[in-house]
């Protein structure tokens, strides 16, 4: 067995693990199914902002843990939350030591650490030459310089198990025996059968709001090796203009969450679908598992369009209209309902109830109730009345392989499976919860990639032997 570590997937989680482990003297190979030099993955397409629960990841671990506690809705296991809070700052230091550059992306705290150069503030795709693309190319060069190998066009298909221990990976191009294996394949968002089993009755009605490279291979391999999984029902994503199903200029940005949390999200009957106050990720999840995921309509007015509609980093007003997205306008709710294909009575009743509850301070009595702690609802009263037919965009799945604080994969009895690790969006136990809490995908991937590499190198016999002989 000549390899110390084989990594499945060359996104943030896989490449951080690989470069850190190679830097500590391990012989590492990374398997990446993408063939192109700039193979697609969510990391490369991402906005590149590293935050946790929308606070600065360089804050003290106790502050970060408190921030996680404020937003968590039952998805975050305490052991993993504290490991994340402890390791995100070292992960940023590690990335910088490997050549990553960061800048402050805006005035809000969560924007303090954005990979440079920044994404332009435009609708649609814009990843080439941007921070995450530059980072991945830099990490690939560092890996090669440290003696590691990146095998593009190599899809892992099974783990090699011997007496309950993981001893390598089988691929379509041959076997890679190794002392340890890390799964970092990015989730199961692009696997139709797994989506149908866990998330929605109609997977084609979800818009893939990312690279769509996460096919759940890692989850399937880990399960076959006896791994436990967490709740698999939630995903990170956003509300998108429904035109995203056929117009590539309106995704992954602008997302429409800021408008929907201020106004209303209704289904095909004109009735509200969900508590908008819980945020856009939760709304995307609710729409995805509703009977008609392509029937959602965001209803708002001119005041919301000119206020919250302009507030996102890449604001829907005016980016959506400029990109050709459908925005309906009418002087009356009846006309708006007609244009949107909604029953006029249903929509008028929903808007009236929303407006009256705001005036009376009785939003919690609405059905479904409307919370106000995170987002303030605005009345829908200023013509033109407006609507955007929407869909649920899925970026990555938030449930997955169960791991411990060192990223070791756990079996159903809660014990680590020897030789097997996982990190990034294929793992669960931090995000999700009943309100689909999102903590930050890049932070999770980098922090647990680092922890995995450190644990693997600290328990690697060759490294230990070298350390012994040098002391
Ligand atoms: C548009 C967009 C914006 C985002 N913005 C942000 C942001 O600003 N901040 C933030 O924190 N998060 C953001 N995210 C989320 C973030 O990108 C992800 O959470 C993170 O990159 C996940 O990293 P990963 O390494 O787990 O997975 P990925 O980056 O998806 O990498 C997984 C890799 O595994 C490979 N793979 C899959 N199956 C196999 C197989 N069987 N064999 C070999 N290789 C395989 C894939 O091809 C892929 O290259 C964004 C995502 C998108 C799409």
What is the topology?
Layout: E1 3-8, H1 12-23, E2 28-32, H2 42-45, H3 61-71, H4 78-97, E3 102-103, E4 114-115, H5 131-145, E5 149-152, E6 156-162, E7 165-171, E8 174-183, H6 192-198, E9 207-208, H7 217-224, E10 235-241, H8 257-262, E11 264-266, H9 280-288, E12 297-301, H10 302-306, H11 316-322, E13 328-330, H12 333-340, H13 344-360, E14 385-397, E15 408-410, E16 416-422, H14 441-458, H15 461-470
Parallel strand pairs: 1-2, 1-8, 2-5, 8-16, 9-14
Antiparallel strand pairs: 3-4, 6-7, 7-8, 10-14, 11-12, 12-14, 13-14, 15-16
Helix pairs in contact: 1-5, 1-14, 3-4, 4-14, 12-13
The site of flavin-adenine dinucleotide has 42 residues, from helix 1, strand 2, helix 2, strand 14 and helix 14.
Structure description:
- The protein is elongated.
- It has helices at 12-23, 42-45, 61-71, 78-97, 131-145, 192-198, 217-224, 257-262, 280-288, 302-306, 316-322, 333-340, 344-360, 441-458, 461-470; strands spanning 3-8, 28-32, 102-103, 114-115, 149-152, 156-162, 165-171, 174-183, 207-208, 235-241, 264-266, 297-301, 328-330, 385-397, 408-410, 416-422.
- The strands form 3 sheets. Strands 1, 2, 5, 6, 7, 8, 15 and 16 form an 8-stranded mixed β-sheet that branches.
- It contains 15 helices and 16 strands.
- Strand 15 (408-410) and strand 16 form a beta hairpin.
- It has 2 domains: 3-233 and 398-470, FAD/NAD(P)-binding domain (3-Layer(bba) Sandwich); 237-394, Succinate dehydrogenase/fumarate reductase flavoprotein, catalytic domain (Flavocytochrome C3, Chain A, domain 1), CATH 3.90.700.
- The longest helix has 20 residues, at 78-97.
- It has 471 residues and is of the alpha/beta class.
- Residues 8-14, 31-34, 39, 41-43, 45-50, 155-156, 184-186, 210-211, 213-215, 217, 252, 395-396, 424-425, 440-443, 445 line the site of flavin-adenine dinucleotide.
